[in-house]
Amino acid sequence: MELPPLVAMVGNPNAGKSALFNALTGARQKVGNYPGVTVERHSGRLALDDGRPVELVDLPGAYSLDPASPDERVTRDVVTGAQAGERLPDALLVVIDASNLDNHLRFAMQLIALGLPVVVALNMVDLAERDGLVLDPAVLERELGVPVVPTVAVRRRGIDTLRGQLTALVGDASTAAGLRRLRASDGKVDDDIVTLQRRARVIAAAATVSETPVRRWNHMLDSVALHPVLGPVLLVALLFVMFQAVFSWSEAPIGWIEGGFAAAEAWLKSVLPDGFLRSLLTDGVIAGVGAVVVFLPQILILFLFILVLEASGYMVRAAFLMDRVMAQVGLSGRAFIPLLSSFACAVPGIMATRTIEDEKDRLTTILIAPLMTCSARLPVYTIIIGAFIPARQVLPFVGLQGLVLFALYLLGIVGAFVAALLLRRTVTKGESSGFMMEMPKYQMPRLRDVALGLWSRTEIFLKRAGTTIALTTVVLWALLSFPQAPSGQKQVEYSIGGRIASGLEVIVRPIGFNHDIALALIPTMAAREIAVAAIGTAYAIDDTEDASGAKSLVDHLRGRWSLPTALAFLMWFVFAPQCISTIAVTRRETNGWRWPLFMIGYLFAAAYVMAGITYWLAVAAGL
Amino acid sequence: MGAIEWARLASPEARRLRELGFDEGVAIEVLHRSRLGSGPIACRIGRMTVALRRAVARAISVSPDPLPAE
Hints:
- The complex is a heterodimer of chains A (623) and B (70).
- Chain A is of the alpha/beta class and 623 residues long.
- Chain A has a domain at 6-214: P-loop containing nucleotide triphosphate hydrolases (Rossmann fold).
- Helix content of chain A is 61%, strand content 9%.
- Chain A has helices at residues 17-25, 70-79, 101-112, 125-130, 137-144, 159-169, 173-186, 193-207, 216-225, 230-248, 251-271, 276-293, 296-312, 314-328, 336-341, 346-352, 359-368, 377-388, 400-425, 447-481, 491-494, 496-508, 515-524, 530-543, 553-560, 563-575, 580-590, 594-620; strands at 6-11, 29-33, 40-47, 53-58, 91-97, 118-123, 133-135, 148-150, 208-211, 393-395, 398-399, 437-439.
- In chain A, the strands form three sheets. Chain A has a seven-stranded mixed sheet with strand order 2-3-4-1-5-6-8, sandwiched between helices.
- In chain A, strand 5 (91-97), helix 3 (101-112) and strand 6 (118-123) form a beta-alpha-beta unit.
- With 70 residues, chain B is of the alpha+beta class.
- Chain B has one domain (3-61): Roll (SH3 type barrels), CATH 2.30.30.
- Chain B is built from two helices and five strands, in the order βαβββαβ.
- Chain B has helices at 11-19, 54-57; strands at residues 3-4, 28-33, 41-45, 48-52, 60-61.
- Chain B has a three-stranded antiparallel sheet.
- The longest helix of chain B has 9 residues, at 11-19.
- Chain B starts with a strand and ends in a 9-residue tail after the last strand.
- The relative contact order of chain B is 0.26.
- The chains are: A alpha/beta (623), B alpha+beta (70).
- Chain A binds chain B through residues 63-64, 66, 68, 99-103, 106, 131, 133, 193-194, 197-198, 201, 213-215, 218-219, 222-223, 226-228, 231-232, 316, 319-321, 323-324, 327, 333, 357-358, 431, 433-439, and chain B through 10, 12-13, 15-21, 23, 26, 31-40, 42, 44, 46-53, 55-56, 69.
């Protein structure tokens, strides 16, 4: 079957491309990857007025065709027909922000000069008008020589006209194909930015009917958000509310999920006879997957905050405020955004480093991102703290358990900063890169866009829980269940898994870890949250010999672990790089095994040393 | 804006600055400074707000313009 015509959406960052893409394609979109690079390919189907389908692809935002980051390289390569795995577009839909004509026109002119059929969407005209900027699209059309359609993507204004223009543009396939061949052969890019910029300014001035000085309300918001004193206070308050919400809002939904899995387990136990299959499904699959899916609400709440902060334009202000702190460890303010995302999960955090232009800056950020306390560590922290740290008030409103949790978060951040400082002086040595960033206008985040973002995260998370994590727990269950121990011997020690753990125990004994922990560390390589499930599975299998009945996991822990061991275990999880997905994404983002191996090495070394210090200090203190 | 000492800037910085529209003769206005000392500054260029580090900002010299901007 012949492929439908391809239309590529191109424009500056902050031109409102994604909103326009959502408005044009609705829910019919697909997120994939370009081969060889890790840039996400967002595409969707659009039906033209005459019913023909068109594939619309949303290219990463760029300032020019001279790429500064992997994202921008894809944009240039697609529009010049040089991108592997992508055909040359039949037409370009260039998106420009109406209130930022000077700048966006220059890139638009560069794109028009490529020779592909172009339609320009003059986006966010409502915001421009609210700013007191009145534009004449007819002047733009005449000067640029291509159709210009005023749009307001978020209110779906101008969408029909735009679709009409696209219909006309990809209507004559033969012309388009001819032009395509013509231009694909040369693919040269007009890169005299200064001249183009001056010309853009002249056109922008001609198209401007009237203009009032600058947007005052935006400036007013910034004078609070960027205030030398109020700004940081606001940022800390926002972060506090965010982390507070992660715990308090998630209680109820976590209860529902736990209830659901408990019901599923009870149902399986009632319909299946006791034996191999029942044990596999309840002790293996449900215990393992359930232990992980329970964290979906917390992850979604964290992502909700991050998506809203990004969509509103505040995130860049946070980067501005943090630049000085980040500069002290040799990073730029830009690194703040990926690092904040890493509190939810290091995987999207590491992917978000693509916006960092400087290679060494980006690499350092990737290497320290796993030190941010991701949501997968929460189950481990929560259960160990619950079992070993007494629920005592140390100060009014401050409980000891909460304080320990906070200290673990803080330790991750301090560890990351120390690591950045050391890395910047050794392996990623070099000039500190600058911090230069356009600060987009504040805007109300669109419910629909945030919901789409959350949905794609949920999908990724559940897919992972259903595949990697389910598989790992089943393998662990099998390793622990076979061979059957003869009476008088412990199943968890006699089984294959138990024997492997005994080997590992020799290495981790000096830092206070026992056989159970050694056992849990192996499957935990797949994902940190498995630690809880693994210990749970081990004790569950052990329990079946014990006719006295099932003890809770917390009781088991209290009975078998000493306090120094528990503290060392917590410390281990602050540093240890136990997450297959993070390692995989690091390999993809750094194009090879070198940096992920380095990351694994330095983090395991740090985990081992820090856990050891904690254990021996705690023993010496007589805990 | 009076002049930009392009030579003081690393080439990716200079290019980014050009892409953001910095050029001789363009009006800019400093809007916000972060904490006293060495934090970045935010300035207005055209209808856009751009954050810069001070080291970069030092390469840009401005001449006071008695007339209303642009």
